């Protein structure tokens, strides 16, 4: 909340402000607030009208789709794509005393990359039962 909202939402502070202000100032303030409120109401009503029109159009389209014998999934396409299964690990390496595995896809793990940079071949990390 901004400071003006905080002050005006406190009934005690608002009463004090009204008591200390003169009638002409309060009348002018009332006119300005009424004008701004009318503008805000017109804007709100227009947005609500657009929302209702959009919803009516959507319902009209849905009934047309159903009347033609289609479903929404027919128009959109197939169901959600099936996620591909996790790949089997192809390489193994030791990091921090723990044996870890890498499928060979994506970014090369740092321990393997360090060894590759030192000249060690990638085949040396192959899992034993998968080497050809």
Question: Key terms for this structure?
Answer:
5 helices, 132 residues, two-stranded antiparallel ribbon, 2 strands, mainly alpha
What does this structure look like?
By secondary structure, the protein is mainly α. The protein folds into two domains: 3-67; 91-130. The protein is 57% helix and 8% strand. The chain has five helices and two strands; from the N terminus they run H-H-H-H-E-E-H. It has helices spanning 3-9, 11-20, 23-67, 72-76, 110-117; strands at residues 91-95, 98-102. It has a two-stranded antiparallel ribbon with strand order 1-2. The longest helix has 45 residues, at 23-67. The radius of gyration is 35 Å and the shape is elongated. The model has no long low-confidence stretch (mean pLDDT 89).
Summarize the entry for a quick read.
This protein has helices at 3-9, 11-20, 23-67, 72-76, 110-117, and strands at residues 91-95, 98-102.
Q: Name the beta content range.
A: 5-15%
Structural class: mainly alpha
The total of helices stands at: 5
The CA-CA distance between the termini, in Å, is 69 Å
Number of domains: 2
Identify the overall geometry: elongated
Low-confidence stretches: none
User: What percentage of residues falls in helices of 4 or more residues?
Assistant: 55-70%
Give the averaged pLDDT, no decimals.
89
How would you sum up the major sheet? 2 strands, antiparallel
Instruction: Output the helix-strand order.
Output: HHHHEEH
Count the beta strands: 2
The neighbouring-strand order within the major sheet is 1-2
Round the Cα radius of gyration to an integer and report it: 35 Å
